[in-house]
Design a protein that fits this description.
Helix content of chain A: under 10%
Shape of chain B: globular
Radius of gyration of chain B: 13 Å
Number of strands of chain B: 11
Number of helices of chain A: 0
Radius of gyration of chain A: 13 Å
Strand content of chain A: over 45%
Order of helices and strands of chain A: EEEEEEEEEEE
Structural class of chain B: mainly beta
Structural class of chain A: mainly beta
Shape of chain A: globular
Distance between the termini of chain B: 32 Å
Order of helices and strands of chain B: EEEEEEEEEEE
Largest interface: A-B, 25 and 25 residues
Oligomer: heterodimer
Helix content of chain B: under 10%
Chain lengths: ~110, ~110
């Protein structure tokens, strides 16, 4: 049973457009929801994260929207740039257990 | 980069041989993790450690063992490598005291089993 479902698998956006990646989770024990960005040949790097007691968090061009009742959260990248082209992973963490479960990833391509 | 190194960075080995991957951290983080990354499967947890000699299984632990005899080193062993274990392996740590367990990853080890 996949505990974190991520969509779409791949996404192509024009420069300046908005990129949206969605995730859904099952386990209500998850209490922390980070997003990671990964460039080819590198390890994933923490991008932005949210706790379930807030509905939105914004850092620069990156925004997480969180819907606790629907058990869904999404990453919005405003004014997408070619340098944003990467693979993005959502994750859901059970901080008591010290473990995270990752989505399958979304490959984002931003065309100039 | 949270002071994480992995060795080797690349390895090619034959089916049936034992393989050990090493993760080394320099900042005394308590939690350490081993993941494998495969196309279409994201990152899957193999084993993790919450202290010296304290380890537990993740979702894909079959065929793998780990050891942590020192805070700074977390070893992943494939007792008898199989072609299905061809993957990119990432070590990660999580920062203490944040209550969030956001994770910081090493550069990865690309393992090919022929």
């Amino acid at each position: 049973q996949q505990q974190v479902k991520q969509s779409p698998q791949s996404l192509i956006v024009q420069k300046g457009g908005i990129s949206i990646i969605n995730c859904a989770y099952e386990n209500t024990a998850f209490d922390y929801f980070p997003w990671y960005q990964q460039f080819p040949g590198k390890g994933p790097a923490l991008l932005i994260a949210i706790r379930p007691d807030v509905s939105e968090k914004k850092e620069g061009r990156f925004t997480i929207s969180f819907n606790k009742s629907a058990k869904q959260f999404s990453l919005h990248i405003m004014d997408s740039q070619p340098g944003d082209s990467a693979t993005y992973f959502c994750a859901a963490s059970n901080t008591n257990a010290g473990k995270s479960t990752f989505g399958d990833g979304t490959t984002l391509t931003v065309k100039p | 980069d949270a002071g994480i190194t992995q060795s080797p960075r690349h390895k090619v080995t034959e089916t049936g041989t034992p393989v050990t991957l090493r993760c080394h951290q320099t900042e005394n983080h308590r939690y350490m993790y081993w993941y494998r990354q495969d196309p279409g499967h994201g990152l899957r947890l193999i084993h993790y450690s919450y202290g010296v000699k304290d380890t537990d299984k993740g979702e894909v632990s079959d065929g793998y063992s780990v050891s942590r005899s020192k805070t700074e080193d977390f070893l992943l062993t494939l007792e008898s490598a199989t072609s299905s274990q061809t993957s990119v392996y990432f070590c990660a740590i999580s920062l203490p005291g944040t209550g969030s367990h956001e994770q910081y990853f090493g550069p990865g080890t690309r393992l090919t089993v022929t």
